[in-house]
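Input chain follows. Return structure tokens only.
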Amino acid sequence: MITRILLLLYIVCLICSCSKNVPDQRVRTPTQTGSNVVHYMLGGTAHVISGSGGSLSSQGVGAEIVYSGTDTFTFISTYNRYGYIYDDLQMFVETTTPVLNVQYPINYIKEQSGQSEYYDGTERYYANMQSSYVIFTRYDAAVISGSFYFVSLPVNGKTISLSEGWFDIQR
């Protein structure tokens, strides 16, 4: 009887000590409705960042137009911080009037030192602009959505890939 009580107490303590504020890792189907979701695979694990708020909250996604001299960029970003777990992505695409279903290279802003990058809380992985791209599937006054593939430049001999990426962001 004592063993069962101790086992039950141990299970209750284990459940209560688990963080309920962990990253969403469910694989999702792409949408084009303004659901404020960015999804990608990293190392075989699904990463899903949702909500609005960008850097103003612990989690969010955003899309905006950025002007730099005579160039204009579409900026897609995520901000996902759960305690010590970071999952931040920012991508600059040099267009604000994209042709749908066409690949656009992920770029950077020279004048503002804006880098397309993924940050995991330890390292910043900058986009390899020869291999990283975005494909817009909807781009209007209400929603920016599409897919992406992000390959980093090597950092300490390590390269990362964000595959099966898609975004659906309300403007």
